[in-house]
Amino acid sequence: MNIPQEVLESFDTTWQDEGLESRSRAVREAIHEYIERHTELEGLEGPAVAALAFDYEHTLVIGELHTVQHEFEDVIGTTQHMHHGEWCLETVFCQGSAARIRELVYRLRDFDAVGRVNVMFLQPELSTE
């Protein structure tokens, strides 16, 4: 695995502050949390309402992000944008097909200049089939 030194140091501080016995244990827990988040995202079907929050390095990706947002205007209702130096925080509010929202999440996560993409389904409507 290739992990930047500052991320690894922060990770070590976090698991040690939580009183875990080892980095291996903390990595196992992090992997389990990742799998749970992914499984929840993959399992949603039908219409959904969601908020996607992500951070990104503005100058490296803004043009491409605008293109993606236009490609997904069928599910994006509104966006909120905040600058913080070279980094930005953006929240995208979506409504529509869970599959289409999931596709948007994966497109955003595919950018190297995007740090994180967090998803919160505000009102998942489960299929009654």
From TrEMBL:
* Transcription factor NikR nickel binding C-terminal domain mapped to chain residues: 49-120
The terms under GO molecular function for this entry are: DNA binding
Give the GO terms filed under biological process for this record. regulation of DNA-templated transcription
Q: What are the record keywords, sorted?
A: DNA-binding, Transcription, Transcription regulation
Q: Which InterPro entries match?
A: Acetolactate_synth/TF_NikR_C (IPR027271), ACT-like_dom_sf (IPR045865), Arc_rbn_hlx_hlx (IPR013321), CopG/NikR_regulator (IPR050192), Ribbon_hlx_hlx (IPR010985), TF_NikR_Ni-bd_C (IPR014864)
PANTHER family hit by this protein: NICKEL-RESPONSIVE REGULATOR
**Protein name according to UniProt:** Transcription factor NikR nickel binding C-terminal domain-containing protein
List the top taxonomic levels of the source.
Archaea, Methanobacteriati, Methanobacteriota, Stenosarchaea group, Halobacteria
